[in-house]
Amino acid sequence: MELCDLDAWTLSSMLQEGKTTSRRITESVLHRLEEREPVTNAFITVTRDLALAHADRADERIRSGKRRSPLDGIPVALKDNLCTRGTPTTCGSRILEGYVPPYDATAVQRILEAGCVPVGKTNLDEFAMGSSTENSAAGPSRNPHDPERVTGGSSGGSAAAVASGETIVALGSDTGGSVRQPAAYCGVCGIKPTYGRISRYGLVAFASSLDQIGCLGRTVKDCALVLNAVCGHDRKDSTSAAFPVPDFLEAVGRGLDGVRIGVPTEYFVEGLDAGIRARIEEALSAMERGGASVEEVSLPHTPYAVAAYYLIATAEASSNLARYDGVRYGLRANAQDGGAIQMYERTRSEGFCREVKRRILLGTYVLSAGYYDAYYLKAQSVRTLIKRDFDEVFRKVDCLVTPVSPCLPFRLGEKTEDPLTMYLVDIYTVSPNLAGLPAMSVPCGKVEGLPVGLQIIGKPFDEETVLSVAEGYGQAAEQD
């Protein structure tokens, strides 16, 4: 097994004990990246020289006993909608061609301060709008388990990079499942914490009340290590929560004994792949053997979640993406003496892909006079009802266990011509974003040789239970 195939926790111990160096780990990752990238297409930008320089500095710190954190010297990939000082940030869009941010996103700053080695910027659906990483100006990413299938989206590049050994850990963003669904499709772990737990400063906005930064790794411990590094209040983000941050790594070993797990009946209905259902049921049985109690619960407004999400998200996207006009940064189309208005129109027409245009149009429509009350306000009311559903069930249980996706990773191009079918892939993941809850995907076996993900949803600011249940499930499954 190569160094690039090991998890962050194992590599961290090896670095501490002097059994390897950050330089060797980084070279292993970069070699795998060069080998696999022509097929996987997980990266938009590779920062080879920067990575090796960071690795050498990490080795100096480790040798001198000044190691910053357990992540010091561990390679990390950064989703390309996170601003990185001196490195292009494109959001997978032509409209940000040539844009190099003058600052780091807070999450990027914190992960680098922890000593992580930045290997590059990963591919994504344009402006994080998609569930397959097919809507990218850089072309689609491909699933390491089957190159003819999607990675999931929008953090598909980050998930594929972790799964294929092109990085050890990665940062992504999650607006309606964009960390958890790719994690499930690529067979890795992915968590989005509570809204406000990680600063959104420097995350290029798609839907501000839904966007969250999350992380991906090979194990639950890997995700806990990254959360320890990037969580915490940030005065630069008005939505950042001034809430105590625990040591998430300590929570990982709590086990399942006495944990009350709820299983929402609305998540196990027609449309869920039979093989996925069987893997989830097997996982629940393993959790019971590990000491947890399992009971059915109801989230009655779940059927309205996808509709509410796509109204709220597109409305916010319409507002946030109005800033891309070709004037200040990125692409500027030739107006051919047609004036500023024609330049705006041509820039946005040439710069945005079809899916982004579709969402801008839908969002502008639902915010327009005569439709605002009927659509946007109604969707916000439904969002409140969904949040109340979760509040009610969390009086009875400690967390919820559900599928991540109703289907297995689908073939490239299979759903691109049917956006409604594509949107329904998010049916199990959008509700935690609407309610601002922590949620995680962990591997849960395979069906037809393809990975299946198990979703664990927790109470607000209770990532500890989510992580401990995820790790407890893994241990229980290994004993079967």
Topology:
Blueprint: H1 8-16, H2 22-40, E1 43-46, H3 48-63, E2 75-79, H4 106-113, E3 117-122, H5 156-164, E4 169-173, H6 180-186, E5 189-192, E6 213-217, H7 220-230, H8 248-251, E7 260-264, H9 274-289, E8 293-297, H10 305-320, H11 339-351, H12 354-367, H13 372-393, E9 399-403, H14 419-423, H15 430-435, E10 439-447, E11 450-458, H16 463-479
Parallel strand pairs: 2-3, 2-4, 7-8, 7-9
Antiparallel strand pairs: 1-3, 4-6, 5-6, 5-10, 9-11, 10-11
Helix pairs in contact: 2-3, 2-5, 5-6, 9-16, 10-12, 10-13
Describe this structure in words.
- The chain has an 11-stranded mixed β-sheet with strand order 1-3-2-4-6-5-10-11-9-7-8, with helices on both faces.
- Strand 10 (439-447) and strand 11 (450-458) form a beta hairpin.
- The protein has a domain at 3-253 and 440-447: Amidase signature (AS) domain (Amidase signature (AS) enzymes, Alpha-Beta Complex), CATH 3.90.1300.
- The chain has helices at residues 8-16, 22-40, 48-63, 106-113, 156-164, 180-186, 220-230, 248-251, 274-289, 305-320, 339-351, 354-367, 372-393, 419-423, 430-435, 463-479, and strands at residues 43-46, 75-79, 117-122, 169-173, 189-192, 213-217, 260-264, 293-297, 399-403, 439-447, 450-458.
- The protein has 480 residues and is of the alpha/beta class.
- The model has no long low-confidence stretch (mean pLDDT 96).
- It contains 16 helices and 11 strands.
